[in-house]
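S2.1 Query sequence (NolW-like domain-containing protein)
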Amino acid sequence: SPVQFEEESLKNVLSLFSDEVRINMFVSPEVEGEVTLRLGKPTPFLDALEAILTQNYCQYEIEGNIIKVSRMPILSQSFSLQYALASTLTPSIDTFLSAQGNSYLDEATNTVIVKDKKEKIEEIAAFIAELDTPEKQLKRKSFSIRFLPVDRVASLLEDYLSAEGKVKVDPLANTLLLAETSRNFAQLEELILNLDVYQSKEEIFTLEYALASSVAPRLTNYLGPEDGFEINDQENEIIVSSDLYTLKKIKGLLDSLDTPEAQLTEETYPLKYLGPEEAWNKLDFKEMVSKHASYEVVDSYEVEKEGSTERKEVEKEYVRIPREIVDNSETERVPTAVSSAEENMGDKQSVVYIVIRDLKRNQQKIREAIEEINRGEEIINQTFYIEEGSLERIALAMANILGIEPGDIEGLEPKGEWMQMEVPTVMYSYFAGITS
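Output structure tokens follow.
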């Protein structure tokens, strides 16, 4: 007939079994528990005995004609995890423990020590073996680095990576992607946070082409409230105080700005008294222009007019020979009134426009130098002694001295009849605009 037990005392059930099969049974005093069991079909005695003992973590062994029943021994086993972080697996391991089992976590060695019945320890061992693999434990996370160049952080992490760990950097965004096993990940994450803290450093940037005072305002877009900069105009330097990552960005900005290509500009200047070559040599002699500078004479130039750029043609100028003798002295200094280039052209004075291409930092010095030249303090009247002949011959002789093309002399055309006048004696004339 079917055998059924419902929360029956384990010792009572064992006594019943012993009487039923007429076998000697020795039950250890520490054996205890309850049995809930239904056997609907005939079952071998030893199978039924093992079923009720297993429910209560007990075991039996046969010695001669005696069956000895005892508690299963509590075993202890250490699990040193290679890839998983032991602290994250401990809660799951505890779900496998019997009432008599327990676990202990050793974070320093990433080890879990389990004490329990043999079968429970075997279950826990299988669970750990399944999860403690590189594939199951590889974690990935992106970190935005604020105060250090990301490549420097990556180099510091290299010594702490496991064989499976990798670091990928994005220098433009200053971010890194960390792939690492769970066991090392927490340690590396803490290391990154400890490295990425604000520490002010000072760096001096000496500019070769750009003017420090001109580019320094652009640095404010990169600097935080704790940062700052100073300008040393004398040495053309910018002294910046900031974190290493910001200093690296600023260096990149200044490197892109402090080049001849980025700093060369064109400025158009009027020349009232000197020719372009003379003015250029004068500037070059004073070392006002850089080795990258160049110039050209133009017959048109751009002017700003009502918010737009308009190209203005430069009127062709001629050398004019005065009809009267102004003085009879060999040289005389003449004060020259300063006027704008447009006024000069309107008065039909000889004005040449020169376009100078040079570094921005030099254009102000060039402008001041040309203004000084155009003030005319060094301009004199100079007397030329020419053999007698027509005024035309005199004009041609002067043009030859000054290096002027005859076609640029007004009056040589057929209608300039006055130029054909004969001068019977040795005479002199003057031309304003020759430097001493």
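The chain is about 30% helix and 30% strand. The radius of gyration is 51 Å.
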